[in-house]
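User:
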Amino acid sequence: MKIILFIGHHKVGSTALQDFFSRNQVALMRAGILYPSTDFQGMSLALATATGRFDTPDHIPLNSREPHNALAFRMLSRHKLWDVPPFYEHLPAFPQMKQAIRNQIQFLNPHTVILAAEVFSHFGKGGAGIINELIDLFPQASEITICATLRRIDEYLASWHGQRLHFGHKVPPMRENGMDEYFNDIHFDYRKVLRAWFDTLPEARFVLRDYSDVRSAGGSVADFAAQTGLTLPSGLHPERKSNESLHRGIYEIVRLGNHALDVDRATHLRDTLRNQTPKLKLPPSNDIELFGATNRDRMQAQFAPVHDYLSEITGQQAFFKDISAVTTPLAIPEREAYEAALEGLARVLPRIADETTRDFLKDLMVQPSASTLFSAPAQQEHRP
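Assistant: Predicted structure:
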């Protein structure tokens, strides 16, 4: 039996991969490929789909779409490494999840079992104990493949910063010291994602991919199948884009809102900004510079030993072939994008129903805040 574990990282197309496997779960079962459920919701949905009583919906409930994130959180909680987030509701205890997976393997007898969870990237915190507990779910003598996709550090931090803003976190801006808190954790030091897996499972096959190569290869599903040798049956629902990031042009407005507004109003602001983004005439998100030249130099220096490790374990001269681009600021300073976003919001302000949200945005528009917000030396330096 082949066991394929996708262990992340975050913001590398993991949601698209999970969405694809969950929407095609029953068709894959019939072809001998198991994407196992871990709770009652997921198994009920699979049963209803298999009996023709339920058509695969456009929106898969979270526990069914991301069953292995739920499993990973439950295991991290069991090892006192992380609490289960409240949005994974009504989860069984770990022994029940374990038995559910084993029963599906027993009765379906698949040739391949796939677990996909970016939350597995945090298992390095628990080392061999939690990794062996996961591997113990499967029959002995299984052939194990560990897949991880990693993103060039500046692109990753920019995207992860947006994800945290989306979650409502109160964070400092990247142009100041916002990246510093990541230097010693998995969101910067990729060694902490990988080492425990390599040390615990030396006989496993490891597939490490640069996210830019994944995109060039046709996306998360196509690259995953090609790299693992997985033969997918015909007639499956296609991969679709999932977990679309916030536009970098609204990052600073969202960040200020997360600090200034209560939780409900900050959430309303984020939803409003996301909905209005297409009308704001913003520059391309990936052209907006968040760090500044000085911070990019610091980032490259801090990341150099991490990149050396990745290159060594993969036998490549440079794991990220464009690693030198880390020190090159992007074309559009964040301040320009912020001012363009406020200008665009001024045009749609009357359509925003919530008075408190409107007042917050009006205050940003009338105050000369950009001159002070973007005055940090790292942001002012901008190489040509």
